[in-house]
Every structure is written in structure tokens, then in C-alpha cells.
Design brief:
Distance between the termini of chain A: 18 Å
Distance between the termini of chain B: 36 Å
Oligomer: heterodimer
Largest sheet of chain A: 5 strands, antiparallel
Structural class of chain B: mainly alpha
Number of strands of chain B: 0
Radius of gyration of chain B: 20 Å
Shape of chain B: elongated
Order of helices and strands of chain A: EHHEEHEE
Structural class of chain A: alpha+beta
Largest sheet of chain B: none
Chain lengths: 134, 255
Amino acid sequence: MSDPALNTSETVTLTIPGELRFVGIARLFVGGLAARLDLGYETMDDLQLALESVLRKAELGDEVTLEAHVEGEGLSILVGPLRRDPLEAGAPHTERLELERLLAALVADAGSTTRSDGCWLRLDVRIPAGSGSA
Amino acid sequence: MSLSPNQLEENELLRAYHERGDKSARDKLVEANLPLARAIARRYAGRGEQLDDLVQVASIGLIKAIDRFDLERGVYFRTYAVPTIVGEIKRHFRDRAWAVHVPRRLKELNQMLSSLIQDMSAQLERSPTIAELAEAAGVEEEEVVEALESSRAYTAESLTAPAEEGSELDRMQTLGVVEEAFERTEDKQLLAVGIDALGPRERRIIQLRFYDGLTQTQIANELGISQMHVSRLIRRALETMREELERGGVDAEER
């Protein structure tokens, strides 16, 4: 890989319309990050599915932004703003359980945070030293 | 309505499933009617979709027919099942129509990547990276990402690997084991919605991935299929569950 990986000070951001037909672009975004960060195919595929699940289950606004940061040995992708936290206790029970179950299996950690513009969901994956991560 | 011995047995099974919740009766109904689903799928072959994929879709239609059949309506099961299966296939064509325009080079690269991922995973004892796949395939990393993405969009690709032909019934026999495993889970509310719409293999894969914590590679090894195929089946299963949830799902808290 000739290009340098993402540095900790850098953020890669993608904003797409809050419509499901743009999910494919979000997947490509993750694919591009995986290439830069030398993530294994399976880690990439799981992260793509996690992101896709969030986009399908969350209440999206007119636009949704994906922010990728490298922190230590991990990659975090923040997704937002969302109209409601899909992981909060008040979210529809079945959907919350399903999303929690999916994210628990697909990413190292997931959580939500509140910003002035609404809720943002965070998806974390580990980037082990050396190439290939899963 | 004069019923043949087979139809009488079918009605008994339907009654056992609908009135007593006998899942084994449903499994027998699925197994007995798979030839019908396959026959209907064959009618729609040669229209840009692979037969294996259409059989998969037809099987989903069959399961829906079994689940929704109303014995009190006084019609033969097959009279109800055929239009349900056909409807499922037509819906599949409608939903996927745009996807068949994936360029040939991406389809070919995707097939190559599927083999490479399988071979390199075994060789490296981990998933290959995009860079490693690109080098092995002799293409740029961006092309690898693009080709992998095309497999997400292009669900017309076979959902059933050739090596799995003929083993469908064997896998169906594992359904009872899978059902027991589901019963042990704490989140039965979640599983109650949508899981019944899945075929035996999808249920098993969902169980292995999201409840037993196996990775795609481990599932691929256990089932003897490729990692990319596992990925596709997981997505298909989740999509089916989501559709079921949207169609008739009642919030589990209300149950």
C-alpha cells in the first residue's frame, strides 16, 4: 500500500442524503477506509454491515454524516445526527434489542453521544498492529 | 372438497403447525413442497437471475405460504402456495431489476475475489487485507472495494454455491437443533419477529453469527461454503427479518 494510513489527527468525513438508497456509498466509504488502514476483509465487511444496520434502523434527518477517526489502535466511525438514539431505553424495544445484538457481534464497541445537532452513534473497530485484522 | 391422502396429511401438518405450534410439522411441509418451489423457480430461469437464487426466493415464498395459510378458507394448500411463491419471485425481480447491470469485469473480479478470500484466509489464517487482495488479483485497491460492493448490490448472484446442491435436506434436519438453541436465548422477543420467515440455513447462520459469536470464516468452515457466501446469506437473512418486522411486526413488548 503506497499511501499512508489515516493519522490520528485526521478525520475523514462523508455527508450523504438521509435516504437508504445512499447506503451503498456509505459502504464504499468504509471500504476505502479499510484499504487505507489495512483492515482485514472480514473486519471491513462486519463494519459495513454494522453501519448499514444503523442507517436502516435509525431515524435519519435530511442528511447524515459519517466521521472516521483513528484513535490509538482503533477506528471510530461516528454516524449522525440522528433524530433519536436507537440504543436508548425509550427506543422501540424489538428494534433496540436487534440493533444491540447486531452491533455487539459486528464491532468492538458501540455507543451513542449527544451533540448540539442531535444524537450520534459511534462504531469502534480495532486495528491490530501489522496487516490484516480479522 | 375431496382430498387425496397426501392433501389430508398436508392439512394435518398445517393444523399441527398453526393450532399447536408444532415446528416439526412446518419443517415437513417445507420439505414436502420444495419440489413445487423449485419447479416454479425454474419457470423464471433465464431472465437474468440464476436458478439457485430463484430457488432460494421461491423457498422463502413457500415458507410464507405455510405461515399464512388459513385452513378455514377451504382451499388446497397448493392453490394458495403457488401464487404466494410466484409473488415472491416477481417481487424479487422488481426489487433487483436495477442490479443486473453490474459490469462484467466487476462480476468476474468479484468471483475471483471470492476464491482469493477463501484461499488466502486459509493460507494466512486471517482475512486478507484489501491491499493483499489487490496484489493477488493484479488490480488496484479501489477496484477491489468496488467489486466487493458490486456483490452487495448484485444479489442476483447465486445464493447457493454449487457444492451445496443436494445438501439442503441435510441442513434442514438441523433445524430442530437450531430451534432449541433459539429457545435458550434471552431475547426471544427479538427472534419471534422475523425469524420464522427464514429458511433453515439462514436461521442457523444467524444463530452462529449473532448468538454463538462465530466469525464469518468460522461459519464458512463449518458449513463448507465461502466467506463471501456467508456474508451474502447474513445480509439476505437480516433483510428478510427486517421485511417481516415491517410487514406485520408487533412490538415485542406488546406480545
